Amino acid sequence: MSIIEIDPKTCTKCGICAAECPRRIITMPEGSLPQAAASEEASCNACGHCVAVCPKGSLSHRDSPLETSPKIDKGLKVTPEQVEQLLKGRRSARVFRDRPVSREIITRLIEAARYAPTGHNLQEVEWLVIDNKKELDRIEELGIEWLQWVIKNLPQVATASNMEEKLERQKLKHDAFLRGAPVLIVAHANKNSLASLAGIDSANALSYLELAANSLGLGTCWAGYVYIMANTFPPVQKALALPEDHAAYGCMMLGYNRFRYYRIPCRKVPRITWR
């Protein structure tokens, strides 16, 4: 059975699906309906372009059925100005309200994030969500142990990063690793499967997530120190308890901003080389 099904009653034989197919699996024999050669089906990466691009909704793919591929609502199209404000107005939040984020909202964010591009359409990014205060506090406590370990064993790194000062602030809870965020999200993937792409895919997904969060009135901040500990410090690795063959490729704090932002701050003028 072919990986694509064509409705002969609505297909106009326009050939757009064949022209759009990235792997050139779909062909248009003269005067015939679109078809996918059985010998080429193994090359399909199930991107869904053929389903998305058909203007008549005449094509369904085995891995992207027409009934589970909703139409794009033209009424929800955003203007360039709205997109620019969303992108430029995003801030890294480091002061959060003492207010939980519902799992329904977090799931909605991850649902949006899973549409971020992935290399070869592998879609291998998985998610760990920690919204339990005791577990979050435990990561903060382990952060103190990590700082002490770095100061003792990597003094040059500690000095360059002012870690002794950070340790004192951490002990006083003046500079917490998670800034009081009620949620920590960890994007992880199999470290043995195209690992060079997993980091990029995870970063793309988390970037989608933080923009979606912004639209829902939530703040985010990349948890860089937690990311380092998740990949180098066994006590934190044990606390996160990711699958044995997985690595953390990005960590993000999530919560409701305590403050509202009213302006877009300046950024450096872009350095562009035209050829």
Describe the structure.
The protein is α+β, with helices and mostly antiparallel strands. The protein has two domains: 4-68, Alpha-Beta Plaits, CATH 3.30.70; 82-256, 3-Layer(aba) Sandwich (NADH Oxidase). It has helices at 16-20, 49-53, 80-89, 103-113, 133-153, 155-160, 163-171, 195-215, 224-232, 234-240; strands at 4-6, 26-27, 35-36, 59-61, 126-130, 183-190, 218-222, 246-256. The strands form three sheets. A four-stranded antiparallel beta sheet has the order 5-6-8-7, with helices on both faces. Strands 1-4 form a two-stranded antiparallel sheet. A two-stranded antiparallel ribbon has the order 2-3. A hairpin with a 7-residue loop joins strand 2 (26-27) and strand 3 (35-36). Helix 4 (103-113) packs across helix 8, helix 5 packs antiparallel against helix 7 (163-171) and helix 9 (224-232) crosses helix 10. It is elongated and about 75 Å long. The mean pLDDT is 93.
